[in-house]
Amino acid sequence: MTAGLVLLLAGGFTFSAQAQTVYHVTEDGTGDGSSWSNATSLQGALSNATGDDAVVVAARRYLPTDDASDRDASFAIDGSQDGLAVYGGWTGTETFTDIASVDNQLDSRDLAANPTVLSGDIDNNDDTNSDRVTETPEDIDGGTDVLNGNNSYTVVYLDGTTEGTITTDTVLDGLTITGGQANTSNPNNSGGGLHCDADNAGAESLCSPTVANTIFTGNYAATFGGALYNDGRNGISSPHIVRTSFVSNATNFSGGAVVNDARNGGTANPLLERTIFASNSADINGGAMYSVTDGGTSSPEVTNALFANNDANKGGPIFNSAQSGTSSPQITHVTFTGNYADRQGGALFNNGNGGVVTPVLTNTILWGNDADTGQKEDGPEIFNQDIASATLSYTLIEGDVNGGVGGGRLIRMTAKSATLTRCLWMRVPHRATTTASAPPMMACAWVRALRHWPVAASLRL
User: Fold this and answer.
1) Could you give the CA distance from residue 83 to residue 62 in angstroms, rounded to a whole number?
2) Which residue segments constitute the domains of the chain, with CATH numbers given?
3) Using one digit for the tens of pLDDT, what is the confidence trace for 90-105?
4) Tens digit of pLDDT for each residue in 67-81?
5) Model pLDDT for residues 350-403, shown as the tens digit of each residue
6) H or E element: which one contains 383?
7) CB 179 within 8 A of CB 142
8) H or E stretch including 43?
9) Residue 189 phi/psi, 5° resolution?
């Protein structure tokens, strides 16, 4: 699965930087990084590099420490290094004379054949594949209880709180981030793969890097964000994430893959383009993504994406919540399929408990998602709670807006909390009865269900 996803994500997206030094990194490097033959370690490069530099990392697995007991160890970049670019996927035979020669060769990388793996498996006992990737949280520490393992709490830590801010000029590209295990108490309970930290009320705080052509897999967090925690409390954490996949990450609370945390009046509005969220899990809210605020703005923009086979108690892939403030994602050209909620919201759960929660879905497919209607907690596709609402335009929806009791309503509302424009409903006979409580619909149509509908039709990677 990993190799195939890398092939999907590779190519066609480059970044331009103005680095003065190119640091070469290999798994056993001990030199100054000036060439492959004199390569340095990844920690050595990160400790010396500035925002004008680039780090090229050869294919192999890299651990943040040799000390199996140092669970606080991670690959760290702070605001004083803003502009630093870290590129994986190299064979270790390329020739780089300057930053331009790095830029010119980015598209020639074969990321599937040359995976650069950043792993939290510091005690070297995870069950891994041939590339030494921890493919699921259950593989951490050889399949023992993920709550009791001893991997690094966080594999990559980006600090935009104390030494300056981190902008989209800071780039992580062509990496596999795996085996993070944030399984204790705060702050080591969130962001097993990557913690993007902008939580500092006493200073300007910004953590908004660019993450591209990267795979997050087999990461775990006890509380927030098994793969990625965008911590915008008291600051701004809005990364640009492109051609990146989140596969088999998990949490015991919310956001199996990603959490966008804009509490305390903060901002967490990541831009996600050409992304895949598959088989992520949360015990409570948002198997793939949880966006939350209590006075700020947590409104990710998701374009050209696939959410498949994610699960949670509420909001199989996505849960949006605002006690105050705004959590209103913009979702465009996205397919939701095969996602599941134990209770409500097989595709989306929108909780407007005192705030503004008004997601907008455009050119999107909602197909084959489900919630446990046996518990009489309907909303197999979308569940809107309190004053939350949703707007759907040019969207394909399997089933009907208000189905029979046995099937459950595809979109569960309070009042008229959904607006549908130019949407196409695939009629499913036992779920095809509309009622007076149906939402406003303009230029929508019902058609008989098509066999083998191409559920990825809206996905434009």
Assistant:
1) 22
2) 2-448 (2.160.20)
3) 999 999 999 999 999 9
4) 999 999 999 999 999
5) 999 889 999 999 999 999 999 886 655 556 789 988 889 899 999 888 754 433
6) strand 382-386
7) no
8) helix 42-48
9) -120, 5
- In this structure, are residues 232 and 262 in contact, taking their beta carbons and an 8 Å threshold? yes
pLDDT digits (tens, 9 = 90+) for 40-65: 999 999 999 999 999 999 999 999 99
**pLDDT over 90 for what percent of the chain?**
72
pLDDT at 372: 80
Main-chain dihedrals φ then ψ at residue 81, nearest 5 degrees: -105, 15
**Beta strands 311-314 and 171-173, pairing class:** unpaired
With residue 3 as reference, give the H or E element that holds it. Answer: helix 2-9
CA–CA distance, 60 with 112 (Å, rounded to integer): 12
Return the ∠ at Cα 359 (arms to 335 and 435), rounded to 5°: 85
Amino acid identity at 409: R
Read off the tokens for 106.
């980015």
104 burial via Cβ count (<10 Å: 0-12, 13-18, 19+)? exposed
Measuring CA to CA, which residue among 211, 192, 199, 207 is closest to residue 154?
A: 192
User: How far is Cα of residue 25 from the mean position of the Cα atoms in its chain?
Assistant: 26
Tell me if the pTM is above 0.70.
yes
Q: Which helix (H) or strand (E) holds 6?
A: helix 2-9
